[in-house]
Fold:
Amino acid sequence: MAKKTQKVVKLHYSKDLGINNAKAYHTELKKALKNKTDVEVKVDKVETLDLTFIQLLYSLKKSVEKSNKKISFNIKLNNESELLLSNAGLTNLF
Structure:
């Protein structure tokens, strides 16, 4: 869910962060990039997470940085999701 303030687009994701929702997330992230503002991403209450979602967030990060804007992440994962990222070697992406 995207919420735009004057200079910041705030994105909040929770629950099912798997491939089944990837297209909707991708569309929302593309809209956020068009705003040409800074971006804040909050992730919490995760029930399902796969690497597709992580790839989308990483792509967003790189795109925002390339446009000389700021991006911040507030990510709270459950133990299972933390383990997934750790096993994939992706704990320091954000």
